[in-house]
Design goal:
Strand content: under 5%
CATH superfamily: MFS general substrate transporter like domains
Radius of gyration: 21 Å
CATH topology: Growth Hormone, Chain: A
CATH architecture: Up-down Bundle
Order of helices and strands: HHHHHHHHHHHHHHHH
Largest sheet: none
Number of helices: 16
CATH class: Mainly Alpha
Distance between the termini: 7 Å
Shape: globular
Number of strands: 0
Number of domains: 1
Helix content: over 70%
């Protein structure tokens, strides 16, 4: 695609007040959410020095989606999506209050993490389902690219810059205040969105005593309809699997990152930026690459390349530990003179891992946005949220104890095997199920 091609859609989006409102709200809320995660991971790692404890923290963020993910999508399709966005951001701001009132104990960290994740169950499908309703289809790909770009830029700002700097210089309390303020502003921005279309099947809550039973019945019906739809659309199904897989890899990497820098690079947990910083930059670079060469690169090829690069990066990270052990200087702290070399290798590997995330997630998410019917978007994104959670649940239960006993290398090897298996299993679907004319960008 020529460099000037996306200019008109971009200008059109930047004149769309509704898009600017939800985009700004996304930036604020994602920066805040990533800052919460970063601060809590550092806090738990400093308290326990345990991969298992870090895995448990991430696990508590995943569990609500397993329990309530489909219900969240059904409720979004049956209610005012604008109201859902406003309420969820307000509630996420409120969940920060326990950190201010009761300190930064391990119990409070786990509780707040679970509460934020539970509220997010409703926010994610509402935001994803709202975007196609306020953005013309011709601009949808650009809008998704901007959302994904700022999603990962928010990761850099929140996870790598805001949380570590504020915690190091001023402590956790000021960070909690900043985060609550950002969620609150995001809620106000969402309140300016145009009213959502009236749901065809509103959630019936007239009789208070029947609300729970009706919610269960409607959730079952929504699940059945969503899974029936997915069985008839393998293109959408594989896109869900790709996105769920990449999100799971990010969750595992986030849980093990503090232990990785401590175990492999022999430095403190707050130096996790050596790993996550280049990964975030890699995501941004991957998004830029897709926008430049998109017209000459089919989406299935981009996804397949991303899976291969992710597999190679995971193998390289696994190999870092035994090689680091060989170069560790006896009688000297850490890796001694070998540290700059290993830090550079780890950073470069993380950079390519970030690129692979962009190559897989952006084409797959765009396919979802284009292919889904409006009346079922919330439910399918609810299924996506559940898939991310289910895919993550067992690994997160296992990876912490495995890493504590045998180190991080076996975990990364196992993840590489899974990614390779998905690449092989879905190869025919990528070649036959995705239309040959479908490109990464248009």
């Amino acid at each position: 695609m020529a460099e000037a091609t996306p200019a008109a859609p971009d200008r059109g989006l930047l004149r769309n007040r509704a898009f600017l409102a939800i985009w700004s709200a996304q930036i604020l809320s994602q920066v805040a959410a990533n800052a919460v995660t970063s601060a809590l991971i550092i806090l738990v790692a400093e308290i326990t020095h345990s991969n298992t404890s870090s895995s448990l923290l991430i696990l508590l963020a995943v569990l609500p989606a397993v329990l309530f993910g489909i219900a969240g999508g059904v409720i979004v399709d049956r209610t005012d999506r604008r109201l859902v966005l406003v309420v969820t951001n307000t509630l996420r701001a409120a969940t920060i209050i326990p950190l201010l009132l009761f300190g930064t104990s391990l119990t409070v960290a786990y509780l707040v993490n679970f509460m934020v994740a539970t509220v997010t169950i409703f926010f994610v499908p509402a935001e994803s389902a709202t975007l196609p309703a306020i953005v013309p289809k011709r601009n949808l790909l650009v809008a998704n690219s901007l959302f994904t770009f700022t999603f990962n830029g928010a990761f850099l700002v929140g996870f790598i810059i805001l949380a570590p700097i504020v915690v190091s210089l001023y402590g956790y309390e000021l960070l909690w205040v900043i985060i609550a303020f950002m969620f609150s502003i995001a809620s106000l921005l969402c309140s300016t969105l145009p009213p959502a279309p009236q749901p065809e099947k509103p959630l019936d809550v007239h009789v208070a005593g029947e609300v729970a039973g009706m919610a269960v019945a409607q959730t079952r019906a929504g699940m059945s309809e969503a899974f029936h739809y997915l069985r008839s659309t393998p293109l959408v199904t594989w896109s869900l699997v790709y996105i769920a897989l990449t999100y799971t890899l990010v969750a595992i990497a986030g849980a093990l990152a503090p232990g990785f820098v401590r175990e492999v690079l022999k430095v403190g947990e707050r130096n996790v930026v050596i790993l996550v910083g280049p990964a975030g930059i890699g995501v941004v670079a991957g998004l830029g690459f897709l926008n430049v060469v998109g017209a000459r690169w089919r989406r299935p090829n981009a996804i397949g390349t991303g899976l291969v690069v992710a597999c190679a990066a995971l193998v390289a990270l696994a190999a870092a530990r035994p090689f680091a052990a060989l170069f560790t200087s006896v009688g000297s702290p850490g890796l001694g003179g070998a540290f700059p070399i290993f830090a550079a290798i780890v950073s470069i590997t993380a950079f390519f891992f970030g690129i692979s995330y962009a190559f897989v997630t952006v084409p797959a998410m765009t396919l979802l946005q284009e292919e889904l019917r409006d009346d079922i978007r919330g439910r399918v994104f609810g299924v996506l949220n559940m898939l991310v959670s289910v895919f993550s649940l067992l690994p997160l239960v296992i990876v912490g104890p495995v890493a504590d006993v045998w180190g991080v290398a076996p975990v990364f090897v196992a993840a590489a095997i899974v990614v390779g298996g998905v690449w092989i299993r879905s190869r025919n679907a990528r070649e036959r199920g995705i239309r040959p004319s479908t490109l990464v960008t248009e």
